[in-house]
Structures are given as C-alpha cells and as structure tokens.
Q: What sequence folds into this?
C-alpha cells in the first residue's frame, strides 16, 4: 500500500511539473511569435500599396495576430483597425512613394460598416488622382462592393470560381415547435411591438411587425450598397438589381458582358498589367507593401500634441461585471472614469459596435459618459455595425452622433425571458418537483413552474418602467418628445440611412469623420493633426490573447443559420431568469 501511495503521488507530481513546463514552453513560443512579428516594415522607394484580405482582416482596433491560431495552423491574418486603415490610405494618397493601390477583395473579412468606411477611404484616394486596381476570382456581395470603387476591375478568365454576388439575406429562426415537443414553455415579457428578441422562442413564424422591420432593414442596407455599386459602374440601381434577380451573373464572361468588370485576365496577363502601371518590364520589379505594414509606418503617435481626443471602443455585448471580454459594465465605467480624470483629454469619441445586452451595464456606462459631458468635454458617438438597444442606450446622450448608412441602430425596447421546464421534467423525464418556499413567490424564477398572473404583472411592471426610462433618456438626448420617441421606438431596428431621417442620428459618416468633428470641438485646434489620438481600452497583447483562449470556445453552430441566434444569446444565463435586457434578437453577417 505504501508503494502504491508513493507511486500515485509521484505520478501526480510528475504530471503537475510537466503541465507547468508545458505552459512555460508554450508561453515562450508565444513570446517568440510576438517578437518575430514586431519587426519594423521597410518602405521601398516606390511601391504599390496592396490590400490583400487573405492576409488581413478589418476590425475596430488594430491587434496582433492571434498566436493560438498561428500555432494551431489556423488563420494568421492581421486584424487592422478601421481608423488605422483609413489614415494609412489617406497618407498613401499624399505619399509620392505610393504609385497606386492593388486590392484583392475576395474573402473580405470585417463588419459591413467597417467595409463601408474602407470603401469611402478608397474613394477619397481615387479623388487624389491615384488609381485603385482590383482583381477578383470569387465575387461576393461585400467583396464586389469594395471592388466597385476601383478604376479598373480585373477578373480571372478561368471558370470554376463561385459567384456569391446575389444580394443580402437575413434568416429568422423560430423554435416554438421543437420547444413544445421538449415540454419547454418560454414566458416572454417585453415592451415594443417590434421588440422581437425572444420571439423565436414563443412563435413558429414571424410576427407581421418583425417581418416588416426585417424587410425594411435588409432593403435599406442593400440599397446603400447597390446604389454605390451601380453608380460606380455607370448602371442604374434597377438594371443592377435585375442582373441579380434574373441570375445573369454566373461565369466570368457574364461579368464582362454586363459591364461589372473591365477585363478577364490570366495570372500572367494580370502581372503584365501591373508592370505597365508601375512602369517596369519585369513583375519582380513591382515593389509592394501590405496595408497593415504601411499603417505601422504611418500611424505614429503625435507625442508633441498636448491635447488628446480619446477614442473609446465599445465593442461586443454589454454584460455585467468587469471581465475583459465584451463590454463589461464595471470595467468600462472605470475606463471612462479614467479618461474623465485625464486633464489632457479635450474631446471623446465613443465608437459603438454593440447589439446591446444588460440594462444595468448600459446604465453604468451612460452615467460615466454623462459625467464627462458635465465637465464640458464634448462626446461624439461613432456607429459601426451595431448601435442597437443597449448600444444606443449608452450613446443617445452624446453631443453628436455619426452613423454609417449600413449600421443597425435603434431597437429602443426591452424584454425579459423566464423559461418554464416543468413540462420537460414531468412529461419527458418523469421527474416531480415539490418546492419548499419561505414566501409565496420564492420559486417564481426557478423555471420549474409557470408564472402566475400576478407574477407576470410584476415582471411586466419592471419591463414597462425600464422602457419608460429608455424613451425618456432618448427624448432628452435627441431633443424629441417622449411621444415622438415612442413612435419610432417599440423595439424597432433601423438601418443608419433611415435612422438619419427619423432623427436617431445626426449625420452619415465614418470614424474618421467623428474624430475630425471631435478635434474641431477643441479650442485652438485647426486640424486633426494638432491632437493626439488615444485609444481605449488597450488591445490585448499576444500573451493576454493566449491566456484568454483557455476560457473561450468556438461556435457550436459556426457556418449555419443558428450561429446568429447563438451569438445573440450566448451571454444569457439561466440563473438570471427574469433579468431585463436591451438587445436586438440576433446578429447579421453580410458577405
């Protein structure tokens, strides 16, 4: 027995030591990868600025490539912050060393609003007198939307690629039938006839109001994209949409015949065209620098500037607590408080990319934004893909709101969900539950019985009170009557282009426009170059990303229509049944 105990303890000790050694070895590898990626890029005397989405992706903030993904053979694309991308392209327009931009937009990765902002920067680059050249093999909605800004669009002459340029679609999932079979009854308590978050659990088809808002939203986003594409290719929007409706874009020859590309080329012909533009004979002499590398060279802090514009990136679901993931209410409140206490910060840009979430977390963040404004510091909101529900809550009182045309915003409404699994327990699992309560309603949120009429009224009162609070804060921030807010609220989601017309935002523009607006709000500032841009929160280091990866997991439904549902409710916790949320029902991915 003694030997057995000794061997067991020795084995445990050995495994423990091995685990520690493996951890430090892995950490050393991560540090090595990070160090190897910190080499300063070199700018040729003359170069093509290359935007290749096989090697980069658009994000809200510039980050290091994910080290875990690099170690496991996954994608090693560099996440390039949209503002860094825009400022780099602006610098390239004035840089005599950059001759033109060459872009490969296949497999473009980034949110639709980020892509819209990149396209605007490319359009401005063209207006400087320099060319943008694109080459496509497998056109997608967002890929071609980007490519359409170009002076020349080349497409492979080889067939076998796949055209996914066919318009955009949003899918609604309804789970009531399967929940009924499982004996689960979801009790949805909400305010707002358009507040469809949770509707998927209580219906087997869309409500008329939900269908109305989804159709209007999809049409508005697509109109923004299609109008830009049509204008760039000298087509009417009607003619362009007819090509898609009649499935006339299948093979490369179709794109050429219909005027969507300028030339079909082989690899050698493409290289020769690039040589001609670069004015060299051999393709080896065409020098290129990738956009992320060029951004590193050009986006240097203006340390001499004594006035700061703080850019606070609020990206993800709004959750309670102080976790590093998502927009954690306590953590973000502290970040904003630190910004408020920095005497060198003279203006703030709140960059919102959030579908909403916790009402409590939203209110904590809004309270800190209000304190900044009380100090006389202007706060400008900049909207990315989403600024909906809680995302709108935290920004509605900002001094000025700038949205992208494709942003999904509004969704001024709240809801609560309390599942009742008593049918599952009794009829499916044959389990009987007998509560022992100190008070009459002690078990109302235990999910083991349906709510009584009095309990539903109790929950509804909470939802109504918070909805009133929401409409009142929007009324104050947007200088509208509560009645006017209620007319455009009711949980309805709006595209940014429509939100401008109804007064939820002040103008359509990019994060660059928001930062410029904020800078000009500062006394004595005549140019954005006169201020230092300070970003919050700081992006995770490779080591922090490595450590965070242990607590995360991949989507179970990745690549399926259920992925958007999973993303929307991944932070919903059964132990917090009855909590009131301000969130849109799902997340939309446009490719």
A:
């Amino acid at each position: 027995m003694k030997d057995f105990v000794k061997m067991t303890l020795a084995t445990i000790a050995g495994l423990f030591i091995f685990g520690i050694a493996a951890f430090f070895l892995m950490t050393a590898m991560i540090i090595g990868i990070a160090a190897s990626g910190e080499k300063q890029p070199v700018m040729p005397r003359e170069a093509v600025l290359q935007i290749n989405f096989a090697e980069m992706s658009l994000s809200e903030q510039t980050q290091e490539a994910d080290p875990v993904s690099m170690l496991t053979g996954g994608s090693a694309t560099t996440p390039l912050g949209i503002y860094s991308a825009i400022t780099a392209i602006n610098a390239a327009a004035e840089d005599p060393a950059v001759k033109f931009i060459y872009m490969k937009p296949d497999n473009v990765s980034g949110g639709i609003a980020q892509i819209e902002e990149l396209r605007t920067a490319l359009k401005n680059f063209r207006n400087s007198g320099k060319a943008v050249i694109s080459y496509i093999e497998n056109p997608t909605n967002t890929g071609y939307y980007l490519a359409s800004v170009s002076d020349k669009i080349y497409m492979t002459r080889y067939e076998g690629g796949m055209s996914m340029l066919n318009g955009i679609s949003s899918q609604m999932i309804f789970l009531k039938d399967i929940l009924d079979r499982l004996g689960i009854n979801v009790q949805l308590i909400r305010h707002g006839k358009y507040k469809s978050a949770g509707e998927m659990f209580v219906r087997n088809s869309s409500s008329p109001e939900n269908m109305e808002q989804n159709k209007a939203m999809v049409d508005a986003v697509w109109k923004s994209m299609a109008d830009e594409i049509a204008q760039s290719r000298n087509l009417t929007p009607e003619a362009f949409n007819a090509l898609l409706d009649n499935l006339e874009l299948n093979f490369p020859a179709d794109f050429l015949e219909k005027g969507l590309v300028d030339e079909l080329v082989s690899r050698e012909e493409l290289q020769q065209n690039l040589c001609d533009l670069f004015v060299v004979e051999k393709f080896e002499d065409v020098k290129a620098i990738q956009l992320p590398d060029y951004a590193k060279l050009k986006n240097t802090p203006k340390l001499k500037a004594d006035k700061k514009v703080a850019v606070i990136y609020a990206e993800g679901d709004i959750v309670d607590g102080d976790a590093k993931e998502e927009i954690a209410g306590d953590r973000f409140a502290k970040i904003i408080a630190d910004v408020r206490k920095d005497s060198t910060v003279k203006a703030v840009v709140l960059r919102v990319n959030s579908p909403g979430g916790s009402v409590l977390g939203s209110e904590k963040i809004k309270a800190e934004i209000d304190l900044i404004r009380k100090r006389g510091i202007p706060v400008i909101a900049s909207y990315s893909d989403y600024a909906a529900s809680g995302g709108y809550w935290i920004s509605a009182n900002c001094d000025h709101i700038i949205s992208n045309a494709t942003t999904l915003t509004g969704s001024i409404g709240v809801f609560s969900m309390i599942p009742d699994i008593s049918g599952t327990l009794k009829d499916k699992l044959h389990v009987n539950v007998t509560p022992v309560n100190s008070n009459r309603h002690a078990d109302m949120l235990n999910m083991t019985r349906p709510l009584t009429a009095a309990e539903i009224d109790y929950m509804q009162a909470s939802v109504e009170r918070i909805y009133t609070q929401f409409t009142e804060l929007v009324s104050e921030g947007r200088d509208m009557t509560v009645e006017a807010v209620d007319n455009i609220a009711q949980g309805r989601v709006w595209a940014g282009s429509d939100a401008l017309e109804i007064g939820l935002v002040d103008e359509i523009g990019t994060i660059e426009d928001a930062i410029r607006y904020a800078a000009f709000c500062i006394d004595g500032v005549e140019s954005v170059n006169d201020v230092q841009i300070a970003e919050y929160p700081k992006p995770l280091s490779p080591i922090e990303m490595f450590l965070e990866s242990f607590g995360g997991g991949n989507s179970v439904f990745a690549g399926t229509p259920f992925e958007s549902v999973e993303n929307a409710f991944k932070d919903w916790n059964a132990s917090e049944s009855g909590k009131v949320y301000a969130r849109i029902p799902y997340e939309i991915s446009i490719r």
